[in-house]
Structure formats: C-alpha cells, structure tokens
Design a protein that fits this description.
Blueprint lengths: L12 E5 L7 E7 L2 E8 L2 E5 L11 H8 L5 E12 L2 E2 L1 H6 L5 H10 L2 E11 L2 E2 L5 H11 L7 E3 L6 H11 L4 E8 L9 E6 L3 E12 L6 E10 L2 E9 L3 H11 L41 E13 L2 E2 L2 E2 L3 E6 L20 H5 L3
Parallel strand pairs: 1-11, 7-9, 14-18
Antiparallel strand pairs: 2-10, 3-4, 3-5, 5-6, 5-7, 7-8, 10-11, 12-13, 12-15, 13-14, 15-18, 16-17
C-alpha cells in the first residue's frame, strides 16, 4: 500500500497495573474485542490483527465504513467489537472468523462489527508515530467524525476520577479495564509503553478434576466448577503452578480421585460448546464419547482464583490460584459471584 506506515506492523502494547497511575496521562476504556490495525489508501483497505493476521475479508462492513471516512490515506489503531444491547459479545466476534464467504455475508448482517479507533499512526504522507500522543489524538478526531457510521472514536479523559468511574461502573460489563497513555508519548510498535489497568476479580470455585502435565506425572491444571442450584457447571481452569506447588497439589488431590460414574460430570460438561472454547486454557467441551484427558475428583475442595474476563459464565483465560478456602462449603459456590451490575456500554461509547 502507498502509505508511510503499512503492514506488517506490531501494535504498541501495555504493561499491567492494578491501580490507575499518577502523572501526565490520558485515560481510555480498554475495549473487549480484537486489536485491529487499519490501513487505507484510497479504495484499498487492509485490516490486521495484533499478530498480523489479515482480517478484512471477515469484516467487510468495517472495510466499507473506513472507505466512507473523508480522509483517503491513513493508518490507525483500534479495536473490533460486536455490540449488543447487553454489551459487547466476544463469542459472536470470535464466530466472525469463518472462512466460508456465505457465512461471512450472513454474519455481517446478524452480528455486525464496529471499529473503535484510539490512535492515528499516519495521515496522508505524514508518519505520526514520533509525534506526541496528544497531537495524534487531535488529528484522529478530525479523521473519525462524530457522525461516522461503523467507526467510533474512543472516549478520552485526563481526569483520573472519570477513569475510576469507568472502572467501577463498566469493568466486567463491557470494558476490560482502562488504558493510560502519556500525553507526550510516541507510538512505539511492539513496546509496552502504555499502562493497562485491570482490577483483579476473584471467585471461590469448586475443584472437580485435574489434567496431567504431558511429560511428568504431576497436575498441570485444575478444573473449576460453580453451582447453579444443584448442578455443578465447568467454568474454566486454573494453571501456572510452580513445580513445588504441583507436587503439593498431587498430595492433596490423590485421595480425592474418584471413578467417573457418579461424578457430577459423568455425562460431560459444556456440551453446548461455544466459540471461546477454542482458546488456550479455556473451558473446553467434553463428552463421554471423547478421549478423557482429565481426572475426576470428588468436588470437596474450594479454592479462590483471580480472573480478568468472562464469556457468559466461563473464564475466558486460565484463572490464577490465590488460596484454598477450607472454610467454604462447595455447595455455596455459585454464579452469583460473577454477576456484574448492568451498564449501558453504548452510553460510554457515545461519550467521545
């Protein structure tokens, strides 16, 4: 493409923090979607994922929306999302990555995607990456007009109290946290220059099984469950234990190993499937006709885990072990722990 900035280009990244930083920062919502670098040179539009995967063919409605913008040549950084009344729909966004053209055409109508723009890397013949973020943001506001259809400008504030309100009201209900950007910061591809603030959320879960390491007879992950009335549902896994922790885990788990018959998951778990079940470490479907890659244990242990994101009633990524909860009865571990207050994410998106 005839642009001063083009693919392949690794996006600028962020380092994790649990609290808002102090200093000369701008704050933006951290959207729950696919990172997307968008490049336009006239009618030619290219969309790339964080790992340089081409995305344009899967999101033709976003390509068309970028062509409608008045600027003919630019490169911008943003997030692809699917927005419903209840908030962002990550499983539906995952389902958009389908190779069949007929399904792409159907899904663009059923679950249309939006692009939320939050940085401008080039405009016309100018490479903007070395310019201060404040200037890039001002130019981005000229490229993405408030009345643009299919492309939105992300809200921005320099007031940390407003950013704290976003975290309190919308985290878990549509956004994945808040991103802090230095006012004078350059755009450095691949560098963790920004700060992503993600409050830690925890839940007490029942341990109902485990998986082995591939090359050692030690547990690799614990299978977690939560109760919905009397039924125990598989909600995800907890992993990333040290070698010493795995040895201790085996001592704890070995006396609790049981036969599959009579176990709450003897007839399978997550049999309804789901798009996010393909993610590494996510709660994956199992039925008795499949090879059993897990060991059932009596659902007597409760552990507290930390997690970042939910897809429906599942942890999107492996949770992080915090501590055992011997004081907690397994039957008391329900989905009420995962509930978040409803919030109109469209109201936040319109705040730009």
């Amino acid at each position: 493409m005839n642009l001063p900035v083009g693919p392949p280009l690794p996006p600028m990244l962020a380092r994790l923090a649990r609290e808002l930083p102090t200093g000369d920062f701008f704050f933006e919502p951290k959207w729950d979607g696919f990172r997307c670098l968008a490049f336009r040179a006239g009618d030619e539009v290219d969309l790339r994922s964080r790992h340089d995967r081409p995305l344009a063919r899967y999101f033709p409605e976003v390509v068309e929306a970028l062509r409608r913008l008045p600027a003919a040549r630019f490169a911008l950084d943003g997030e692809l999302v699917v927005l419903r009344r209840s908030g962002f729909d990550f499983p539906s966004l995952m389902a958009r990555l389908h190779p069949a053209p007929t399904r792409v055409e159907r899904l663009r109508r059923e679950t249309p995607a939006l692009l939320i723009a939050f940085d401008l890397l080039s405009l016309g013949d100018d490479d903007l990456r070395a310019r201060p973020f404040a200037e890039r943001r001002r130019l981005l506001e000229e490229v993405v007009a408030p009345d643009a259809s299919g492309v939105f400008l992300t809200p921005l504030t320099a007031d940390p109290s407003i950013a704290a309100t976003w975290l309190a009201r919308f985290a878990g209900a549509g956004i994945d946290g808040v991103v802090a950007k230095g006012r004078a910061a350059e755009y450095v591809p691949g560098s963790r220059t920004m700060v992503k603030v993600k409050p830690e959320r925890t839940a007490d879960c029942v341990v109902a099984g485990f998986r082995w390491l591939v090359h050692r007879a030690l547990p690799s992950s614990l299978l977690l469950g939560l109760y919905d009335e009397a039924r125990l549902h598989h909600v995800g896994v907890v992993s990333s234990f040290t070698g010493h922790q795995r040895e201790r885990l085996l001592e704890v788990l070995r006396p609790l190993v049981v036969e599959l018959a009579g176990h709450p998951w003897e007839h399978g778990f997550l049999v309804e499937g789901g798009a996010t079940g393909r993610l590494l470490g996510a709660a994956g479907r199992w039925t008795p006709d499949m090879v059993r890659d897990w060991v059932p244990v009596a659902p007597r242990l409760v552990c507290e885990v930390a997690y970042d994101q939910l897809d429906g009633r599942r942890f999107r990524h492996p949770a992080r072990f915090r501590r055992w909860r011997p004081d907690r009865e397994p039957a008391s571990c329900g989905f009420d722990q995962l509930q978040v207050a409803p919030a109109d994410i469209g109201q936040l998106l319109a705040a730009a």
